[in-house]
Amino acid sequence: MAADQWKRDYRFHRTNQLARRWLVKVYSPSGVGGRELSQFEVLRRRRTAHTTEHASNKAQFIISQPVVKARVVQQQQQFAVVSLVQSYILQKGKNFFIYHQNSTSSTMKQQKQQLSLAIVMLFRILTIWLFSKAGNGNSVDADLVNCPFSEKCQCTSNNCNGLTRVRCVNLHEIPEFSENHCSITSMLLEGNFSSVSKERFFNFKDVIRKMTISTTSSQPLVFDDEAFYGVVLNEIERLEINAAGKMSEIPLGVMRLWRLNTLIINGTDIESLNDVFSKYTFTLRTLRISNSQLMNIDSDVFSELRFFTTLELPRNKLKQIPKQALLPVQWSLRLLDLSYNEITSVEEDTFFGFQRLRQLNLSNNPIALINDRAFANNTIPLLTLDLSHCQLESIPTGTLVRLQLLRYLNVSFNRIAHISGATFANMTSLVSVDLSNNPIKTVAVDAFYGASFQSVTLSNTELQQLDLGIFDTLTALREMRIVDSPSLQKLHASFSHSNANLLPRVLGLRNVGTLELDRSLFELLLKLSFTLDIDSNDTVRCDAATMEWLTALIRCYDPVNINLDSIYCEPTKGGDDFGDASSANKTLILDSVLNTDISCELYSTTTTTSVTDEDSTRSTIETTLVQQYYRGIVLCTVWQLSLLLSQQRWLFHNACCRAD
Predict the structure, then answer these.
(1) Phi/psi-derived region of residue 325, left when phi > 0, alpha when psi is between -120 and 50, beta in every other case
(2) What residue intervals traverse the membrane (predicted)?
(3) Dmax over Cα atoms in the chain, in whole Å?
(4) What's the DSSP call for residue 413?
C-alpha cells in the first residue's frame, strides 16, 4: 500500500515538474536560457502557493493594470498562466487521489462535480491564454519604439532583444538600413515609393522571415535585380507585394529566395506569367496573383515547383483554365482559385489526374457549359466546389456524378430554372447545397431521390407550386426552407399514405405568395412527423373547401404540427391596404376555423382507414413476434428434452455395462 502511495506521489510531482518546464519553454520571451529566463525562474521559485484563488486574483490584477511596458505585461500574463495551470494540475492530482481511494464508494454526483471543476479550470486557462495572445498583439503595437537600424522605422524592441517586428510607414523611399543583428519575424514597408533599390537590406546580419512591400504611388513599382540580394533575405519565407496596379512583371530577385514558400502579389498590370520560378525556389507552396491583368500562363512556369499546393488567381483576365500549365503540379495541388475571371467553359479532361485537389473555386465566371468529362478521373478527392455567379442553366449532373467525395456545392446566382429528377442521387457524401437566387420554376418530385444531405434552402426563386412528394422514402432530406419566393402559390402532395415516410420532415415558408393549400395535404398533416411552418407575414387562400378540411384537421385530430395562430387569410378586395397584417380586411385563419361548422364524421373515412391500417400492421407485427416467441420456447423445450433423454440413455448404457 505504501509503495502504491509513493508511486502516485512521484507521478504527480513529476507531472507538475514537466508542466512547469514546458510552460517556461513556451511562454518565455527568449526561449530556454538568457537573462529574462533567469528572472522568470527566480520569481517562479519565490512562489510558494499555487491555488485557484491566487491564480484568479492574479488574472484580475493583470486585466485591471494599464499597459506600461509590453514586456512587463507579457511577463505578468506568463506568470498568471503558469500559476493557473499549476493550480489546475494540483487540484486534478487531489481529485485523482481521492477518486482512487474512494473508487468503491464514489457516486455519479461526485464524478460530475469533479468533471465540472475540471471544465471550469480549463475555461479559466483558455481565457487567460486568449487574453495573453491578444495582449501580445495589441500592447506590442501600442508600445513601438524607434528601431536601432533606422529612424524611419519602429520596432517592438529598441535593442532587437529577441524576435522583433518592424513597421516602416509613410515612406517616400526605402531607407538604407544600418548594420545590425536583429532577428526579424516580419517587416512592413509602406508608403508612396516607386522603386526598391539594391543592397538596402545588405547590413542585416540575422534573418528576416516575412516581408510586406506596399505602395500607393501612381508610378510603376520597379525592383532592382539585386534588390533581394544577401544572405539574410535568402531566409524570407513569405513575401507580399501590393503594387497599386503599377507593376508589369514579377521581380527577378524572387528567384534568389530559396526558402520562399508563400508569394502574394496584388494590384499589378502583369499580363503574362513567365518562368520566373527557377530551381532555387522549388520550396514555393502558395502563389496568389490578384487584381491584375493576367491573361497567359506559360506551360513550364510551375515545372520546378515540387511542393506546390495552392494557386490563387482571382480577379484577372483568364479566358480559359490553364490546363497545360497545371500539368506539372496536378499531383500536389490542393486548392485552385480562378474566381472573377473570364472563363466561359470547362472542357473535357481539364482536371484529369488531380489526385489531391480539395477545393475548386470557379465562381464569378461567365461559365455556361461544363463538360461531363471535365472530372474524368473518378478518384479526385474534391470536397468543395464553388460555381456561384456563373451562367449555368442547369445543375451539371453528368459532371457531379464523378465527384463522389464532394461535400459542399454552391450553384447560387445562376440561371437554373428546373431541378430534374435524381440530380443528387450518386453524391453520397454531399452535406450542403446552395441553390439560392436561381430562377427555379419547377422541382421534380424525385429531384432529391437518393440525396444524402438533410436540409436545403431555396431563396429568391420563381416557384409557383411545390409537390411535397419530394419528401419521399428514398431521400435523406428532412428540412426544406423556401424564402423570398413571392410567386409560390400552391402546395400539394402527390404520394399516397403508404409511401409517406414516418421520419420527421419540416417545410418552412417565409415571404412567399398567397398560398393555396390543396386537399391532398390533409393526410400528410395528420402525420405527427410532418411540420408545416408558415411565417406570420404570409397569407393563405381561405376558400370554403380549404377551410373545411383545415377545420376538420384542427377540431377532429389533435395535435397537428401546423401553427395557425399568426397566419392570416388573404385580404378582401374591398380593403385599401393589402400588405398590412393589422388591416381590418385581414383576418386570422384561426378565427375563420372557429366560425366554420364541420362534422368530423365526414372526414373520418381516410383517417379511420389509415388508423385501421396502422393498427392492423401493428397487430400483425405483434402476432408474428408472439408466434416467434412461442416457437422459440417450444424449440428450446424440445432441445432440453432431447438432451435429457440422451443423458438418461448414456446413464442406462453405463449401468447395463457395469451389470454385465
Answers:
(1) alpha
(2) none
(3) 124
(4) S
Say how many C-beta atoms besides its own lie within 10 A of residue 175's C-beta. 16
The full set of domain ranges for the chain reads: 2-143, 417-598
**What would the grid cell of residue 269 be?**
498590370
Nearest to 35 by CA among 176, 162, 170, 132: 162
Q: Give bridge partners of residue 457 from the DSSP assignment.
A: 434, 481
Full DSSP string of 304-335: T-SS--EEE--SS---S--HHHHGGGTTT--E
CA of 353: how far to CAs of 323, 346, 427, 585, in Å?
11, 15, 20, 65
Q: Is 84 in contact with 46 (CB distance < 8 Å)? A: no
How is 520-546 classified by DSSP, letter by letter?
Answer: THHHHHHSTTEEEEE-TT-EE---HHH
Quote the CA–CA distance of 28 and 506 in Å, as a whole number: 55
- 211-to-10, 184, 206, 228, 501 alpha-carbon distances in Å: 49, 9, 14, 11, 60
Q: Residue 630 pLDDT > 80, yes or no? A: no
Q: Lowest-pLDDT range, 177-191, 207-221, 593-607, 619-633?
A: 619-633
DSSP 8-state symbol, 104: T
Is 251's pLDDT higher than 90?
Answer: no
Over residues 146-191, the pLDDT tens digits come to: 888 888 899 987 777 778 899 999 999 998 888 888 888 899 999 9
The span from the CA of 279 to the CA of 256, in Å, is 10
**Which grid cell is 421?**
429528377
The CATH-assigned architecture of domain 417-598 is Alpha-Beta Horseshoe (3.80)
In terms of Cβ atoms closer than 10 Å to its own Cβ (0-12, 13-18, 19+), residue 383 is middle
Cα(447)–Cα(451) distance, rounded to whole angstroms? 9
Q: Label residue 402 exposed, middle or buried (CB < 10 Å: 0-12, 13-18, 19+).
A: buried
How confident is the model over 520-531, as pLDDT tens digits?
887 777 775 778
Q: What is the pLDDT of residues 396-415, one digit of tens each?
A: 888 888 888 999 999 999 99
* Whole-structure pTM value: 0.68
Return mean pLDDT, the chain: 75
